[in-house]
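hey can u run this one w/ 2-acetamido-2-deoxy-beta-D-glucopyranose bound, need the structure tokens asap thx
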Amino acid sequence: MAKASLMALLLKAICISCLISFALAAEKLNVVGKVYCDTCRVEFETKLSEPISGATVKLECKKEEDHVVTFSREAVTNATGGYSIPVEGDHDEEICSVRVDKSPRADCNERMEAWEKSQVELTGQDGLAEPTRTANNLGFKKKEALPGCAQVLKDMGFPKGKVEAVP
Ligand SMILES: *[C@@H]1O[C@H](CO)[C@@H](O)[C@H](O)[C@H]1NC(C)=O
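ok here u go:
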């Protein structure tokens, strides 16, 4: 009798823990981030960087061992340059990253390695309760730097002429 109820208790405990992990696994992760125009052509953010609305970004997960794509989804940035990509499934032991794909601005569509892609961790098993994963800011480089850039860079502490990319 005592043995039987102990067994029942044990089964109950196992079931509760499996329900909890099931609930966690079912929790949808969301990748959010922003796309900017590097208006000073310096490959870092300045206060003159502008959010790009209507830019296409692509999230892709690949298996670590053979690089087979397991998940892929595109999103378009909103008025403030933000995007949000819902993720299906758990992507443990995969490499997931968001990259900029297309810019709607003809004057700001140059790719740059520094802002082209951001890796994101997409597993619910890493102990992070928060379902939102924030990617590093992404962006494109403007064809011509804005006239205000020299001053802004000076204010940021760069001596004149020290930032290579500024004309
Ligand atoms: C743009 O998208 C981001 C990420 O989803 C969101 O936080 C922000 O509120 C959105 N802004 C507008 C103006 O819709």
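The mean pLDDT is 86. anyway lmk if its weird
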